[in-house]
Write a structure and sequence with these properties.
Blueprint: E1 20-25, E2 28-33, H1 44-59, E3 65-70, H2 107-126, E4 132-136, E5 139-141, H3 143-149, E6 153-157, E7 161-163, H4 179-182, H5 185-194, E8 198-199, H6 200-205, E9 211-213, H7 218-230, H8 234-250, H9 253-275, H10 284-293
Parallel strand pairs: 2-3, 3-4, 4-6, 5-7, 6-9
Antiparallel strand pairs: 1-2, 7-8
The structure holds zinc ion.
Zinc ion (ZN) is lined by residues 114, 175, 264, 268.
Length: 297
Amino acid sequence: MSDLIEPRKVDIEYETDEPVLYRSADGVAWITMNRPKFHNAQNSQMTYALDAAFRRAVDDDAVRVIVLAGNGKHFSAGHDIGTPGRDVHKSFERAQLLPDHTNKPGAELLYTREQEVYLGMCRRWRDVPKPTIAMVQGACIAGGLMLAWVCDLIVASEDAFFQDPVQRMGIPGVEYFAHAFELPPRVAKEFLLLGERMSAQRAYGFGMVNRVVPREQLQAEVEGMAANLAAKGRLGLWLTKQAVNHVEDLRGKRTAMDAVFHMHHFAHAQSDLTQGNPLGGQDARSMAAGNKQQGDA
Ligand code: ZN
């Protein structure tokens, strides 16, 4: 085995064995990201736990509705690009029919990994046969957007904000490229090119968010909506969400996402070739500092 494809050995220190919490009651499964110390940054430990939680909710006939939430002050600050639990170079039992990424050379490593843990998983979650509600408070940044967007409905608190700053890494948006479907094209360009925060209220104006409520009412609002859905017929709910997802795909959502995923990986590869870093020389600290500078628009 050449050095090039020797798996990189990286120390990983998980702060929890439960990166995702699961509970179900009264027809509703609550799937909660549980890395509040790191603003629910998504490592593979978390994405695989999320996938297992969706599997569990799908398998349980008593579950009619799925809520996706984030523990703590923020929904999700995005993909893990710098916590002690960052596990990019760790192998997991795959959820799709894909090979292990860790021994792959060059750009193939990230390409294989992101097909699995980002694009592949988000598409699976978007298509689960039960209605899903994202309950969003605080930051919903980059990879956080992907988790909110795969849900059928989004309820946000007034303090929630949305942001995709990855253009600063030289990347044209996160892996699940739904920006120009979630927002009108010119607004999507502004969102991506400037990378500024978008308030929940502004997102509501574009239909990206279904409801905006005060922070203290967020839980009750989602509970009410989930109870309403849980009382409806299972198959009817599945067919209804599929109908709209199908229309989105006919409008090109899936094919556009495939095309942009490849641009995304061209950008990762270009950064790696020219700077020796697939994130355009950025890390968690520099991104966090930059995100704050580009505060509320
Ligand atoms: Zn990526």
